[in-house]
Specification:
2 copies of one chain form a homodimer. Chain A is α+β, with helices and mostly antiparallel strands. In chain A, about 45% of the residues lie in helices and about 15% in strands. Chains A and B meet through helix 2, strand 1, helix 5, helix 6 and strand 3 of A and helix 2, strand 1, helix 5, helix 6 and strand 3 of B. Strand 5 of chain A pairs parallel with strand 1 of chain B, so a sheet runs across the interface.
Chain lengths: ~250, ~250
């Protein structure tokens, strides 16, 4: 499993198509992930058409991978197919609620990660776009997602044309808790974050952004409270529009 | 990657401990999954203590794996650690909102699936407990999860003591959409679900539950509207209690 240990996100891809048969094979294997009651509460929209990519790009804040990758995959939480099946079979579906959204989103994310692992094991590179849940309304429009379908993860895929350094991760003790959660003291925080903060590239971020600390780069520039509150409203509105919220 | 293709959920485990060093190694590798802005918005609570397992069991509707597996892992969406870091660094965190919950939950689920793949590749068996989001309030209590921490996935882990048949999956065409979502007609539903419905074990489910169709087993017994609505309220209440909702 060195492909997981040594993985890195790939944002630059070769001008080389991914054979449809390979992509289908990887997706089919990915669908072996655990799924709630074997309901398979997800759908995947495959985008290869340049025009569709260009329509999707603004929803992803025009990150260049969307238009430069040979394939863009949008993994969706999907209770539409299952509900349609119920209606065809004299059964009354009851999945227009938040818990059903969470169940379907979980199914979709497990499959997303499974796909990423399989793709990387086959020499492909992927980039996970966190922007999917920031502008779900735009993605719903472009991909024509019906009620009870919500986009939850987007992956750009292609043959790697770069090999960036592996980003740092926090020390294991910062993430694991034995038996119960042991809340972090300031000394814990100090110990857990010191190596990250000492890295030249992270210190460089602080400098070029004119900030005093690395944390301020996150709170004041990258992931701001006002943006989070705005995007929370868009998320709630889109969940309502898609039928998962009253 | 045959370990993904041939995987099955394991619910019966040998009476054999998982070495702590192996578990830590697998978790550390799992943390290589993509994470929003490299914030690593998750924590993992490791349960080995039989008494804690017995306290967790009711939250998982007393599924026997919780008390019989050597290890139970609860993967949590965690903005607590990151927010504490911000506060220690003169930065004002703004992550007490729904979008931040979704970001952290996504991070946690990608790591969960990565861990499952690694565990299976090392000969372990896992069972994913969907019950985690049904009784999050009880899990919060037992594991003493502070504000901005929500349990999102639970995995029981151990050396397999069974080899069940692989469950069926829907045909690929039922899940994939080219370029845009093509909504399902009744003919599509017919084609996609016919093999599943024809399986003797699924027909047996219909019979023993005194139902007319397989879909009714889901809507009337396994995943009922009233239950979903009740659990949606618990979820909303717990998200509020944990600080992710106003």
């Amino acid at each position: 499993m060195d492909c997981i240990k040594n993985r890195r996100t790939i944002r630059k891809y070769k001008q080389e198509e991914i054979p449809a048969a390979l992509l289908n094979e990887l997706l089919e294997e990915a669908f072996r992930a655990s799924t709630m009651g074997n309901m398979q509460l997800y759908s995947v929209v495959i985008t290869r058409d340049q025009q569709v990519k260009e329509k999707l790009a603004p929803a992803h804040f025009n990150q260049p991978m969307v238009t430069s990758a040979p394939v863009v995959l949008t993994f969706c939480a999907d209770f539409n197919r299952f509900s349609k099946w119920c209606k065809c079979r004299k059964a009354e579906p009851g999945y227009d609620n938040p818990i059903s959204f969470i169940n379907a989103a979980s199914d979709a994310l497990l499959v997303t990660q499974n796909f990423c692992t399989l793709a990387e094991a086959h020499g492909l590179g992927i980039c996970y776009l966190g922007t999917t849940v920031y502008n779900p309304d735009k993605i719903v429009d472009v991909l024509q997602l019906p009620e009870l379908v919500m986009p939850i993860a987007t992956i750009t895929v292609g043959y790697p044309d770069e090999c960036p350094a592996q980003p740092e991760r926090l020390p294991l003790e910062g993430i694991l808790h034995e038996e119960v959660y042991h809340d972090y003291t300031s000394e814990d925080i100090e110990r857990i974050y010191s190596a990250k903060e000492a890295m030249p590239e992270n210190q460089h971020f602080v400098t070029i952004n004119n900030k005093e600390t690395l944390a301020q780069v996150f709170t004041d520039i990258r992931y701001k409270k006002a943006d989070n509150e705005y995007m929370s409203e868009v998320l709630k509105k889109t969940l309502k529009q898609q039928g998962f919220r009253k």
